[in-house]
């Protein structure tokens, strides 16, 4: 007796020479398709002609054929034997075997193609890496160019604001100019962050460590937002603890940027109610104080998932936020980096349709009261050295920058020469002795860097004259490059009048007035 498992995978039958099935000998495979007295060609049309050509008394193997039985497809092998009377046909179901063979062949082919694809991908990745490296270089050049191009008009905005503020103004205009200047400074920082985000991510952010007033910062935020806030259904509330120290050491612009971002966001997402900004002490020692700034709104709020993602770059909590409220979703990501750089922490609590609170905790050093020193009067004297009669050459192709520089230096009663490009500056340097030369880096015809490479020409008349770079490109790499070219210092655009004059005074002090001038 043939086991059922085997019985189901074959069928043995006989036919006459014309292909009519004469007998089913054994097996049950596709039995419904092979019926005695019916033609085998109905199920196996490929045997037509083959049976006639079979040699007598010799086995014949036919492999890899296909039949259909009850709408199922089978792969089969056939063993044929033709004698003097009939033809014996043994049909084996090889579907599973051919399936595995097919899979193996397919796998082998897949492996071959994967290997070939990997080799092609490696070549492609190498090309992409080179393209990415080039793109990064192009990005750096683009950022450097845009940094200069954007900071130049910012320099004009801040410069003219400072010039106007020095004039006689009524109280209302004075407040407007102060707010304009404050907004301009914040804009400069925001532009810097957008252009130099990769620098911030690389941990190259440099914070200023100077005396600042937290009360003044909160007051500036209040003035800024009260003038631009238009929704009368939202009240702006600012409160500070009476125990806040008068002065701490920190970065005034960065602190104001953090608060401005949080307050601006709170206002954007609050249709009615109030936005409350507060500052108070959490921890205080003899030398340090930890302050917590809280910005709370009664706006739409966030769910737990949104709170977890709110500090991610390019994050918008709703799809239309970018179009309705503007921005690229960088604000809170930058705020978190700034707070972290100050060794602080930021957290958020929120409830849908009830509001959101941001908490920023930052440690500050207290102002150190130095004892009087004999050196102090000398430093103070140097800080107030008059520049009257000093010969200064300024090369800058921007007319508005020229106007600002002329306004600053003419008030100091210097002998000022202004030119519009490097070639004109070089022509002046060849013939006239200057006590200080200020060169814009990006100028037509000849840049400031190109001019500094003309050392042989410069040395003829102005060998010991200090040169200052006027530029918006002030990364560590830029400053190092300018120093290697021979610049004595850098005046970063945009600059304040005080910073501008101090840079000139400091370089003159350091150079000990080499051209035998006296102050």
Summarize the structure in words:
It is an enzyme of class 2 (transferase). It comes from Polaribacter atrinae. Residues 391-508 form the Response regulatory domain. It holds the Pfam family HisKA. Mean pLDDT is 83; it is low at 319-328, 370-382 and 513-519. Helix content is 45%, strand content 23%. It starts with a helix and ends in an 8-residue tail after the last helix. It is of the alpha/beta class. It is elongated and about 130 Å long. α3 (95-165) runs antiparallel to α4 and α13 (422-431) packs across α15.
What's the helix and strand layout?
Layout: H1 4-7, E1 10-15, E2 21-27, H2 50-53, E3 59-69, E4 72-82, E5 87-93, H3 95-165, H4 171-195, H5 197-201, E6 210-212, H6 214-228, E7 234-240, E8 248-250, H7 252-268, E9 273-284, E10 288-297, H8 304-309, H9 321-325, H10 331-341, E11 345-351, E12 355-366, H11 375-383, E13 391-395, H12 399-411, E14 415-419, H13 422-431, E15 436-440, H14 448-452, H15 455-462, E16 467-471, H16 476-485, E17 489-492, H17 497-511
Parallel strand pairs: 7-9, 13-14, 13-15, 15-16, 16-17
Antiparallel strand pairs: 1-2, 1-5, 3-4, 4-5, 6-8, 8-12, 9-10, 10-12, 11-12
Compact description:
With 519 residues, the chain is α/β, with parallel strands linked by helices.
Rg over CA atoms, rounded to whole Å, is 42 Å
Write the CATH architecture name of the domain at 210-366.
2-Layer Sandwich
Beta content: 15-25%
**Structural class assignment:** alpha/beta
Main beta-sheet annotation: 7 strands, mixed
Could you tell me the number of beta strands?
17
Low-confidence stretches: 319-328, 370-382, 513-519
The name of the CATH topology of the domain at 210-366 is Heat Shock Protein 90
Report the mean per-residue pLDDT as an integer. 83
Can you tell me the CATH class of the domain at 210-366?
Answer: Alpha Beta
Helix content: 40-55%
CATH superfamily of the domain at 210-366: Histidine kinase-like ATPase, C-terminal domain
N-C termini distance: 124 Å
Given the structure, what is the number of helices?
17
Structural shape: elongated
Keywords: Kinase, Phosphoprotein, Transferase
InterPro entries: CheY-like_superfamily, HATPase_C_sf, HATPase_dom, His_kinase_dom, HisK_dim/P_dom, HisK_dim/P_sf, Sig_transdc_His_kin-like_C, Sig_transdc_resp-reg_receiver
Modified residues (4-aspartylphosphate): 440
Domain Response regulatory: 391-508
